[in-house]
Amino acid sequence: MSQSFFSLIERDAHTHVLQMVLGALFMLSAYHLFMFFRNRDRSYLLYSSYSFFSFLAYLPVAEQGFLVTFCEITGLDYNTKTFFTIIFNCIYFFFFAEFLDIKPTNKRWYKIIVFPVATFALLAVVAFVLDKMTGQDILNLYNQVFIVLITLQTALSFYILMKLQNKLKYYIIFGGLILFVSSILGENRVRNHPWINISRETGNIIYFVGLLVENLAFSLALGHKQKVIFDEKVAYHKEAVEALQKNEILKDEVSRENEIRLTVENEKFKYLQQISDLKLTVLQNQMNPHFIFNALNSIKFCILENDNEKAVNYLTKFSKIIRTILAASRMKEFTLAEELHTLQLYVDIENLRFTDIDFQIYVAPQIEPDAIKLPPMVLQPFIENAILHGLSHAEEKRITLDIFEQSDTLKIHISDTGIGREAAMRLKTTVDSRQKSMGVNIARGMLKSYFEPRDFSIEYTDLFTFGKPAGTRVEITLPNADF
Fold it and tell me: InterPro entries in the record, alphabetically (predicted)?
Protein backbone atom coordinates (compact mmCIF):
# COMPACT_ATOMS: atom_id res chain seq x y z
CA MET A 1 0.00 0.00 0.00
CA SER A 2 2.78 2.44 0.96
CA GLN A 3 4.87 1.50 -2.09
CA SER A 4 1.85 1.98 -4.39
CA PHE A 5 1.17 5.38 -2.80
CA PHE A 6 4.73 6.58 -3.38
CA SER A 7 4.64 5.27 -6.97
CA LEU A 8 1.50 7.33 -7.56
CA ILE A 9 3.21 10.44 -6.15
CA GLU A 10 6.24 9.82 -8.40
CA ARG A 11 4.03 9.50 -11.49
CA ASP A 12 2.20 12.73 -10.62
CA ALA A 13 5.51 14.53 -10.01
CA HIS A 14 6.86 13.10 -13.27
CA THR A 15 3.84 14.43 -15.17
CA HIS A 16 4.00 17.90 -13.59
CA VAL A 17 7.74 18.27 -14.09
CA LEU A 18 7.43 17.12 -17.70
CA GLN A 19 4.64 19.63 -18.38
CA MET A 20 6.67 22.41 -16.73
CA VAL A 21 9.77 21.56 -18.76
CA LEU A 22 7.81 21.30 -22.03
CA GLY A 23 6.14 24.65 -21.36
CA ALA A 24 9.48 26.27 -20.57
CA LEU A 25 11.07 24.82 -23.73
CA PHE A 26 8.23 26.10 -25.91
CA MET A 27 8.40 29.58 -24.37
CA LEU A 28 12.20 29.71 -24.73
CA SER A 29 11.88 28.65 -28.37
CA ALA A 30 9.25 31.30 -29.16
CA TYR A 31 11.11 34.06 -27.28
CA HIS A 32 14.44 33.45 -28.97
CA LEU A 33 12.79 33.18 -32.39
CA PHE A 34 11.43 36.67 -31.73
CA MET A 35 14.91 37.81 -30.68
CA PHE A 36 16.31 36.45 -33.93
CA PHE A 37 13.95 38.57 -36.02
CA ARG A 38 14.82 41.55 -33.86
CA ASN A 39 18.63 41.21 -33.84
CA ARG A 40 19.28 39.05 -36.94
CA ASP A 41 21.78 37.01 -34.94
CA ARG A 42 21.85 33.37 -36.10
CA SER A 43 22.69 32.24 -32.57
CA TYR A 44 19.12 33.04 -31.52
CA LEU A 45 17.65 31.09 -34.45
CA LEU A 46 19.78 28.02 -33.73
CA TYR A 47 18.97 28.13 -30.02
CA SER A 48 15.26 28.53 -30.82
CA SER A 49 15.50 25.44 -33.07
CA TYR A 50 17.35 23.53 -30.33
CA SER A 51 14.61 24.30 -27.77
CA PHE A 52 11.80 23.53 -30.22
CA PHE A 53 13.14 20.13 -31.27
CA SER A 54 13.75 19.32 -27.58
CA PHE A 55 10.09 20.19 -27.00
CA LEU A 56 8.96 17.92 -29.87
CA ALA A 57 11.23 15.08 -28.73
CA TYR A 58 9.73 14.79 -25.24
CA LEU A 59 6.05 15.31 -26.01
CA PRO A 60 5.52 11.51 -26.45
CA VAL A 61 6.92 10.91 -22.95
CA ALA A 62 3.69 12.26 -21.46
CA GLU A 63 1.58 9.44 -19.99
CA GLN A 64 -1.62 11.31 -19.19
CA GLY A 65 -3.50 14.50 -19.89
CA PHE A 66 -4.09 16.43 -23.10
CA LEU A 67 -0.52 15.85 -24.29
CA VAL A 68 -1.31 12.17 -24.88
CA THR A 69 -4.25 13.12 -27.09
CA PHE A 70 -2.14 15.72 -28.92
CA CYS A 71 0.55 13.13 -29.68
CA GLU A 72 -2.02 10.66 -30.97
CA ILE A 73 -3.48 13.28 -33.32
CA THR A 74 -0.09 14.50 -34.63
CA GLY A 75 1.47 11.05 -34.89
CA LEU A 76 4.23 11.79 -32.37
CA ASP A 77 5.53 8.58 -30.82
CA TYR A 78 8.74 7.10 -29.45
CA ASN A 79 10.05 6.73 -33.00
CA THR A 80 9.74 10.48 -33.60
CA LYS A 81 11.18 11.01 -30.10
CA THR A 82 14.34 9.20 -31.17
CA PHE A 83 14.54 11.20 -34.42
CA PHE A 84 13.99 14.62 -32.81
CA THR A 85 16.44 13.75 -30.02
CA ILE A 86 19.15 13.12 -32.62
CA ILE A 87 18.28 16.37 -34.42
CA PHE A 88 18.37 18.62 -31.34
CA ASN A 89 21.65 17.04 -30.22
CA CYS A 90 23.14 17.94 -33.62
CA ILE A 91 21.71 21.48 -33.50
CA TYR A 92 23.47 21.89 -30.15
CA PHE A 93 26.86 21.84 -31.91
CA PHE A 94 25.74 24.29 -34.61
CA PHE A 95 24.47 26.60 -31.88
CA PHE A 96 27.60 26.84 -29.77
CA ALA A 97 29.86 27.04 -32.86
CA GLU A 98 27.88 30.10 -34.03
CA PHE A 99 27.46 31.54 -30.53
CA LEU A 100 31.19 31.42 -29.74
CA ASP A 101 32.23 32.70 -33.21
CA ILE A 102 34.47 29.69 -33.73
CA LYS A 103 34.58 29.99 -37.54
CA PRO A 104 36.25 33.45 -37.60
CA THR A 105 38.59 32.32 -34.82
CA ASN A 106 39.74 29.03 -36.33
CA LYS A 107 38.17 27.56 -39.48
CA ARG A 108 39.77 24.17 -38.83
CA TRP A 109 38.16 23.91 -35.39
CA TYR A 110 34.83 24.94 -36.89
CA LYS A 111 34.98 22.18 -39.50
CA ILE A 112 35.92 19.57 -36.88
CA ILE A 113 32.92 20.56 -34.75
CA VAL A 114 30.24 21.14 -37.39
CA PHE A 115 30.89 18.85 -40.37
CA PRO A 116 30.57 15.50 -38.51
CA VAL A 117 27.28 16.44 -36.80
CA ALA A 118 25.88 17.70 -40.10
CA THR A 119 26.57 14.21 -41.46
CA PHE A 120 24.98 12.60 -38.38
CA ALA A 121 21.82 14.68 -38.86
CA LEU A 122 21.60 13.81 -42.57
CA LEU A 123 21.98 10.10 -41.81
CA ALA A 124 19.22 10.40 -39.18
CA VAL A 125 16.85 11.84 -41.80
CA VAL A 126 17.69 9.00 -44.18
CA ALA A 127 17.20 6.38 -41.45
CA PHE A 128 13.88 7.94 -40.39
CA VAL A 129 12.55 7.93 -43.98
CA LEU A 130 13.70 4.33 -44.58
CA ASP A 131 12.13 3.31 -41.27
CA LYS A 132 8.77 4.72 -42.39
CA MET A 133 9.02 3.20 -45.88
CA THR A 134 10.18 -0.31 -44.92
CA GLY A 135 8.70 -0.74 -41.45
CA GLN A 136 12.09 -1.96 -40.21
CA ASP A 137 13.65 -0.73 -36.98
CA ILE A 138 16.38 1.17 -38.86
CA LEU A 139 16.22 4.40 -36.84
CA ASN A 140 16.74 2.66 -33.49
CA LEU A 141 19.69 0.72 -34.89
CA TYR A 142 21.20 3.98 -36.16
CA ASN A 143 20.50 5.64 -32.79
CA GLN A 144 22.71 3.07 -31.01
CA VAL A 145 25.57 3.98 -33.34
CA PHE A 146 24.74 7.68 -33.03
CA ILE A 147 25.05 7.61 -29.22
CA VAL A 148 28.62 6.36 -29.51
CA LEU A 149 29.52 8.83 -32.27
CA ILE A 150 27.97 11.86 -30.59
CA THR A 151 29.70 11.00 -27.29
CA LEU A 152 33.08 10.98 -29.04
CA GLN A 153 32.19 14.16 -30.91
CA THR A 154 31.19 15.85 -27.64
CA ALA A 155 34.48 14.92 -25.99
CA LEU A 156 36.44 16.24 -28.99
CA SER A 157 34.39 19.46 -29.16
CA PHE A 158 34.76 20.13 -25.43
CA TYR A 159 38.52 19.66 -25.79
CA ILE A 160 38.48 22.36 -28.49
CA LEU A 161 36.29 24.60 -26.31
CA MET A 162 38.82 24.44 -23.49
CA LYS A 163 41.45 25.87 -25.87
CA LEU A 164 39.14 28.66 -27.01
CA GLN A 165 39.89 32.14 -25.62
CA ASN A 166 36.27 33.08 -24.98
CA LYS A 167 34.78 33.32 -21.48
CA LEU A 168 31.27 32.62 -22.82
CA LYS A 169 32.36 29.03 -23.43
CA TYR A 170 31.79 28.24 -19.73
CA TYR A 171 28.03 28.61 -20.20
CA ILE A 172 28.16 25.93 -22.91
CA ILE A 173 30.41 23.65 -20.86
CA PHE A 174 28.28 24.05 -17.73
CA GLY A 175 25.01 23.35 -19.56
CA GLY A 176 26.49 20.39 -21.41
CA LEU A 177 27.87 18.82 -18.22
CA ILE A 178 24.58 19.28 -16.36
CA LEU A 179 22.65 17.54 -19.15
CA PHE A 180 25.29 14.79 -19.39
CA VAL A 181 25.13 14.00 -15.66
CA SER A 182 21.32 14.10 -15.56
CA SER A 183 21.05 11.89 -18.65
CA ILE A 184 23.44 9.34 -17.06
CA LEU A 185 21.30 9.23 -13.90
CA GLY A 186 18.21 8.78 -16.05
CA GLU A 187 19.65 5.71 -17.81
CA ASN A 188 18.06 2.40 -16.81
CA ARG A 189 21.42 0.64 -16.38
CA VAL A 190 22.71 3.36 -14.07
CA ARG A 191 19.71 4.23 -11.93
CA ASN A 192 19.11 0.56 -10.99
CA HIS A 193 22.50 0.18 -9.29
CA PRO A 194 22.02 -0.71 -5.61
CA TRP A 195 23.80 2.41 -4.47
CA ILE A 196 21.49 4.58 -6.62
CA ASN A 197 18.25 2.56 -6.95
CA ILE A 198 15.81 5.19 -8.20
CA SER A 199 12.62 4.62 -10.17
CA ARG A 200 12.14 5.38 -13.87
CA GLU A 201 9.94 8.36 -13.02
CA THR A 202 12.57 9.82 -10.68
CA GLY A 203 15.28 9.24 -13.29
CA ASN A 204 13.16 11.03 -15.89
CA ILE A 205 12.52 13.93 -13.51
CA ILE A 206 16.28 14.32 -12.96
CA TYR A 207 16.86 14.29 -16.72
CA PHE A 208 14.06 16.80 -17.43
CA VAL A 209 15.37 19.18 -14.77
CA GLY A 210 18.87 18.84 -16.25
CA LEU A 211 17.48 19.59 -19.73
CA LEU A 212 15.73 22.70 -18.39
CA VAL A 213 18.85 23.90 -16.54
CA GLU A 214 20.93 23.43 -19.71
CA ASN A 215 18.47 25.48 -21.78
CA LEU A 216 18.38 28.23 -19.16
CA ALA A 217 22.20 28.30 -19.15
CA PHE A 218 22.21 28.80 -22.93
CA SER A 219 19.57 31.52 -22.63
CA LEU A 220 21.69 33.32 -20.03
CA ALA A 221 24.70 32.93 -22.33
CA LEU A 222 22.86 34.73 -25.15
CA GLY A 223 21.90 37.52 -22.76
CA HIS A 224 25.51 37.83 -21.59
CA LYS A 225 26.74 38.01 -25.19
CA GLN A 226 24.22 40.76 -25.95
CA LYS A 227 25.48 42.72 -22.93
CA VAL A 228 29.08 42.34 -24.13
CA ILE A 229 28.11 43.70 -27.56
CA PHE A 230 26.35 46.64 -25.93
CA ASP A 231 29.36 47.41 -23.71
CA GLU A 232 31.68 47.29 -26.73
CA LYS A 233 29.38 49.65 -28.62
CA VAL A 234 29.48 52.14 -25.74
CA ALA A 235 33.26 51.82 -25.48
CA TYR A 236 33.76 52.41 -29.22
CA HIS A 237 31.47 55.43 -29.11
CA LYS A 238 33.43 56.84 -26.18
CA GLU A 239 36.68 56.20 -28.03
CA ALA A 240 35.40 58.04 -31.12
CA VAL A 241 34.37 61.05 -29.05
CA GLU A 242 37.74 61.10 -27.26
CA ALA A 243 39.53 60.85 -30.62
CA LEU A 244 37.61 63.91 -31.88
CA GLN A 245 38.51 65.85 -28.77
CA LYS A 246 42.18 64.89 -29.06
CA ASN A 247 42.09 65.90 -32.72
CA GLU A 248 41.07 69.45 -31.85
CA ILE A 249 43.94 69.70 -29.39
CA LEU A 250 46.33 68.17 -31.92
CA LYS A 251 45.22 70.61 -34.63
CA ASP A 252 46.01 73.54 -32.33
CA GLU A 253 49.38 72.05 -31.40
CA VAL A 254 50.28 71.37 -35.04
CA SER A 255 49.31 74.92 -36.01
CA ARG A 256 51.46 76.41 -33.25
CA GLU A 257 54.41 74.20 -34.15
CA ASN A 258 54.02 75.13 -37.80
CA GLU A 259 54.07 78.87 -36.99
CA ILE A 260 57.25 78.50 -34.93
CA ARG A 261 58.90 76.38 -37.63
CA LEU A 262 58.10 78.94 -40.33
CA THR A 263 59.99 81.63 -38.40
CA VAL A 264 63.26 79.66 -38.16
CA GLU A 265 63.45 77.51 -41.29
CA ASN A 266 65.42 78.69 -44.32
CA GLU A 267 65.32 77.90 -48.05
CA LYS A 268 66.95 74.51 -47.49
CA PHE A 269 63.72 73.20 -45.85
CA LYS A 270 61.14 74.69 -48.24
CA TYR A 271 60.39 71.33 -49.79
CA LEU A 272 59.68 69.73 -46.38
CA GLN A 273 57.60 72.73 -45.32
CA GLN A 274 55.49 72.55 -48.46
CA ILE A 275 54.70 68.89 -47.82
CA SER A 276 53.84 69.67 -44.16
CA ASP A 277 51.49 72.49 -45.18
CA LEU A 278 49.75 70.30 -47.71
CA LYS A 279 49.31 67.52 -45.16
CA LEU A 280 47.81 69.99 -42.69
CA THR A 281 45.39 71.19 -45.36
CA VAL A 282 44.37 67.58 -46.10
CA LEU A 283 43.90 67.04 -42.36
CA GLN A 284 41.59 70.03 -42.12
CA ASN A 285 39.71 68.97 -45.26
CA GLN A 286 39.17 65.45 -43.92
CA MET A 287 38.20 66.61 -40.48
CA ASN A 288 35.56 69.16 -41.56
CA PRO A 289 32.58 69.17 -39.16
CA HIS A 290 30.10 68.32 -41.94
CA PHE A 291 31.75 64.94 -42.63
CA ILE A 292 32.02 64.07 -38.92
CA PHE A 293 28.41 65.13 -38.26
CA ASN A 294 27.03 62.98 -41.09
CA ALA A 295 29.15 59.97 -40.17
CA LEU A 296 28.10 60.07 -36.50
CA ASN A 297 24.46 60.57 -37.45
CA SER A 298 24.62 57.53 -39.72
CA ILE A 299 26.14 55.44 -36.94
CA LYS A 300 23.50 56.73 -34.52
CA PHE A 301 20.82 55.60 -37.01
CA CYS A 302 22.23 52.05 -36.92
CA ILE A 303 22.13 52.07 -33.12
CA LEU A 304 18.52 53.34 -33.02
CA GLU A 305 17.54 50.63 -35.53
CA ASN A 306 19.03 48.03 -33.16
CA ASP A 307 21.58 47.06 -35.79
CA ASN A 308 24.18 46.68 -33.04
CA GLU A 309 26.75 44.68 -34.94
CA LYS A 310 26.72 47.11 -37.87
CA ALA A 311 26.93 50.12 -35.55
CA VAL A 312 29.86 48.66 -33.61
CA ASN A 313 31.57 47.72 -36.86
CA TYR A 314 31.29 51.25 -38.27
CA LEU A 315 32.23 52.90 -34.98
CA THR A 316 35.43 50.87 -35.13
CA LYS A 317 36.10 51.97 -38.70
CA PHE A 318 35.27 55.58 -37.87
CA SER A 319 37.73 55.62 -34.97
CA LYS A 320 40.37 54.00 -37.19
CA ILE A 321 40.00 56.61 -39.96
CA ILE A 322 40.18 59.40 -37.35
CA ARG A 323 43.44 57.93 -36.03
CA THR A 324 44.71 57.56 -39.60
CA ILE A 325 44.00 61.21 -40.36
CA LEU A 326 45.77 62.28 -37.17
CA ALA A 327 48.78 60.11 -38.02
CA ALA A 328 48.88 61.52 -41.56
CA SER A 329 49.48 65.01 -40.20
CA ARG A 330 52.87 63.90 -38.85
CA MET A 331 53.98 61.55 -41.64
CA LYS A 332 55.79 62.29 -44.87
CA GLU A 333 54.46 59.30 -46.75
CA PHE A 334 52.17 56.27 -46.71
CA THR A 335 52.72 52.89 -48.28
CA LEU A 336 50.26 51.98 -51.01
CA ALA A 337 48.88 49.29 -48.68
CA GLU A 338 48.12 51.91 -45.99
CA GLU A 339 46.57 54.21 -48.59
CA LEU A 340 44.25 51.42 -49.86
CA HIS A 341 43.27 50.47 -46.32
CA THR A 342 42.39 54.10 -45.52
CA LEU A 343 40.34 54.40 -48.72
CA GLN A 344 38.37 51.27 -47.79
CA LEU A 345 37.60 52.70 -44.35
CA TYR A 346 36.54 56.00 -45.93
CA VAL A 347 34.16 54.28 -48.40
CA ASP A 348 32.70 52.15 -45.59
CA ILE A 349 31.92 55.32 -43.64
CA GLU A 350 30.37 57.01 -46.70
CA ASN A 351 28.31 53.87 -47.30
CA LEU A 352 26.29 54.77 -44.22
CA ARG A 353 24.92 57.73 -46.19
CA PHE A 354 25.14 56.48 -49.77
CA THR A 355 24.28 52.79 -49.44
CA ASP A 356 25.24 50.07 -51.89
CA ILE A 357 28.53 51.61 -53.03
CA ASP A 358 30.49 48.77 -54.58
CA PHE A 359 34.18 49.60 -54.07
CA GLN A 360 36.56 47.25 -55.88
CA ILE A 361 40.36 47.34 -55.77
CA TYR A 362 42.52 45.49 -58.31
CA VAL A 363 46.27 45.46 -57.82
CA ALA A 364 48.43 43.80 -60.48
CA PRO A 365 50.23 40.68 -59.17
CA GLN A 366 53.71 42.15 -59.75
CA ILE A 367 52.89 45.21 -57.61
CA GLU A 368 54.03 45.11 -53.96
CA PRO A 369 51.74 47.56 -52.07
CA ASP A 370 54.01 47.60 -49.01
CA ALA A 371 56.99 48.73 -51.11
CA ILE A 372 55.35 51.66 -52.93
CA LYS A 373 55.39 55.09 -51.20
CA LEU A 374 52.86 57.91 -51.70
CA PRO A 375 51.96 61.16 -49.96
CA PRO A 376 49.46 60.30 -47.22
CA MET A 377 45.76 60.23 -48.26
CA VAL A 378 46.54 61.67 -51.70
CA LEU A 379 43.93 59.49 -53.46
CA GLN A 380 41.06 60.27 -51.07
CA PRO A 381 39.89 63.51 -52.80
CA PHE A 382 39.35 61.61 -56.07
CA ILE A 383 37.27 58.93 -54.32
CA GLU A 384 35.33 61.64 -52.50
CA ASN A 385 34.56 63.46 -55.78
CA ALA A 386 33.42 60.19 -57.38
CA ILE A 387 30.96 59.59 -54.52
CA LEU A 388 29.62 63.12 -53.97
CA HIS A 389 29.45 64.34 -57.56
CA GLY A 390 28.95 61.12 -59.49
CA LEU A 391 27.51 58.20 -57.55
CA SER A 392 25.19 60.19 -55.27
CA HIS A 393 22.99 60.91 -58.30
CA ALA A 394 23.36 57.51 -60.02
CA GLU A 395 21.37 54.30 -59.67
CA GLU A 396 24.36 51.98 -59.99
CA LYS A 397 27.09 52.90 -57.51
CA ARG A 398 30.43 51.33 -58.24
CA ILE A 399 34.01 52.59 -57.95
CA THR A 400 36.87 50.58 -59.39
CA LEU A 401 40.49 51.28 -58.44
CA ASP A 402 42.99 49.65 -60.83
CA ILE A 403 46.74 49.77 -60.09
CA PHE A 404 49.27 48.37 -62.58
CA GLU A 405 52.65 48.99 -64.20
CA GLN A 406 53.09 50.40 -67.69
CA SER A 407 56.61 50.90 -69.05
CA ASP A 408 58.46 52.80 -66.32
CA THR A 409 55.38 54.25 -64.65
CA LEU A 410 52.79 53.32 -62.07
CA LYS A 411 49.23 53.69 -63.34
CA ILE A 412 46.31 54.37 -60.98
CA HIS A 413 42.87 54.40 -62.63
CA ILE A 414 39.83 55.44 -60.58
CA SER A 415 36.61 54.68 -62.49
CA ASP A 416 33.06 55.32 -61.34
CA THR A 417 29.60 54.60 -62.73
CA GLY A 418 28.31 58.10 -61.95
CA ILE A 419 26.36 60.53 -64.08
CA GLY A 420 29.42 61.97 -65.82
CA ARG A 421 31.21 65.29 -65.46
CA GLU A 422 28.83 67.29 -67.66
CA ALA A 423 25.72 66.31 -65.71
CA ALA A 424 27.56 66.74 -62.41
CA MET A 425 28.60 70.30 -63.34
CA ARG A 426 24.95 71.21 -63.89
CA LEU A 427 23.99 69.91 -60.45
CA LYS A 428 26.86 71.36 -58.41
CA THR A 429 26.63 74.57 -56.40
CA THR A 430 29.37 77.16 -56.11
CA VAL A 431 30.42 75.73 -52.73
CA ASP A 432 30.61 72.22 -54.21
CA SER A 433 32.84 73.45 -57.02
CA ARG A 434 35.19 75.22 -54.62
CA GLN A 435 35.45 72.12 -52.38
CA LYS A 436 36.18 69.84 -55.32
CA SER A 437 38.80 72.24 -56.67
CA MET A 438 40.43 72.50 -53.24
CA GLY A 439 40.66 68.72 -52.76
CA VAL A 440 42.04 68.00 -56.23
CA ASN A 441 44.47 70.95 -56.07
CA ILE A 442 45.78 69.73 -52.71
CA ALA A 443 46.32 66.25 -54.14
CA ARG A 444 48.03 67.68 -57.23
CA GLY A 445 50.30 69.85 -55.08
CA MET A 446 51.24 66.91 -52.83
CA LEU A 447 52.16 64.76 -55.86
CA LYS A 448 54.18 67.56 -57.39
CA SER A 449 56.13 68.21 -54.19
CA TYR A 450 56.68 64.52 -53.51
CA PHE A 451 57.88 63.43 -56.97
CA GLU A 452 59.65 66.63 -58.05
CA PRO A 453 61.66 66.89 -60.27
CA ARG A 454 60.13 63.78 -61.86
CA ASP A 455 56.92 64.22 -63.84
CA PHE A 456 53.45 62.92 -63.05
CA SER A 457 50.07 63.46 -64.72
CA ILE A 458 46.36 63.49 -63.86
CA GLU A 459 43.87 63.07 -66.71
CA TYR A 460 40.09 62.73 -66.83
CA THR A 461 38.21 60.54 -69.31
CA ASP A 462 34.43 60.55 -69.74
CA LEU A 463 32.97 57.06 -70.04
CA PHE A 464 30.04 56.24 -72.31
CA THR A 465 27.76 53.23 -72.86
CA PHE A 466 25.78 53.20 -76.13
CA GLY A 467 26.49 56.89 -76.52
CA LYS A 468 25.19 57.82 -73.06
CA PRO A 469 27.33 59.08 -70.14
CA ALA A 470 28.33 56.12 -67.94
CA GLY A 471 30.80 57.63 -65.50
CA THR A 472 34.28 59.12 -65.27
CA ARG A 473 37.79 57.70 -65.08
CA VAL A 474 40.68 59.54 -63.42
CA GLU A 475 44.04 58.36 -64.79
CA ILE A 476 46.98 59.12 -62.51
CA THR A 477 50.45 58.35 -63.84
CA LEU A 478 53.33 58.32 -61.37
CA PRO A 479 57.06 58.01 -62.11
CA ASN A 480 58.97 54.87 -61.30
CA ALA A 481 59.87 54.94 -57.61
CA ASP A 482 61.63 51.57 -57.44
CA PHE A 483 58.36 49.70 -57.39
Answer: 7TMR_DISM_rcpt_extracell_dom1, Bact_2-comp_sensor_kinase, HATPase_C_sf, Sig_transdc_His_kin_internal
